[in-house]
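Sample intake sheet
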Amino acid sequence: MGDFNYYDLGFMEKQKSMLFFHALAIRNEEALVIVSPRDIIASIGYFQNARTSIDFDFCKKEKIPVMRRMVGGGTTLLDNNQIFYQIILKHDNLLNIKDKEYFFEKFSIPAINTYKKIGIETRYKPVNDIITIEKKKITGQGAGEIGECIVFVGGILLDFDYDLMSRILKVPDDNYRNNVYRNMQEGLTTVKRELGYIPDRKMIVSLLKGEWEKLLGNLKEAYFGEDEEKAISETSIMIDNNDFLFGYNREGKEKTKISSGNFLYKSSRKTKGGLLEIYVSIKDDTIAGLKINGDFMCHPVNLPVILETDLIGTKARKLEIENAIEDLYKLTDGSILGVSPSELSEIILSDQRGGE
């Protein structure tokens, strides 16, 4: 393994803390970035539907920018109470382990050890979380393919605005929003809640750097200059715009029976790997169309499109769909993390009989 560049960027304004790791991946630079946003940002995962995930009226009123990242996972609220670690690896790096669940487990170790050194016992929870011994989530992580690189991101959660997070989400009504707030209060914790205070940020950054160095090898100090500023500007043109933000908004009807054996419906399930929302068209008991959204992660990044295309024409029978998905997983050497071919076939078919 060669040296990794190391960027300790402190606090970065607006969306720069997110744009920079995209820029590094696009220019094929292996690096560890440790950074905190200076400003509040709402971020959605690569495969999410922006319009059904974010309350844009609220975000506009509160002047909270919203951006889609090229990494899977769910909606997140970013602010200066989070210390992010962002790792950019070339595809051929030996650390880019083929088994992505094992990859997530291995890459969770630096954060787990950092939490331990500040007095918080944690462990890895598949597919992408770090939880306390009381089973409360304290870190969510994500990964994605950008250009010739794979990016792994996560953060040390110092404190969190539960109320604001509940307000940026698109939900049916206030009762639902209140339930979201209560569930977050019960299931998500922070360094401040665990220790009663927030330790010195520089100390945490130093610990985090040391733990990542054990995994990545030698870290070479790198500096943010004119070239990096230019790279962020170029990346912003590519992904910090409405075309990219709303580009994955593939919607369908909730459920419509057209005739016997012909259906349009939406099927949803919260899996180990995240929420899947699949719009399904069945014609003559055969899959005629699929649209896959959600806060999941997958490899390769275009796997949802491959599934949507190649499953058309498959008989709407669990075993046939499962076998077809298994073949595509093998063909692409990929998967939707935490979702087996059997479970994915169940989700696709789960509402088929509901209209009969």
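Comment: The mean pLDDT is 92. Residues 255-355 form a domain with the Enolase-like; domain 1 fold (CATH 3.30.390.50).
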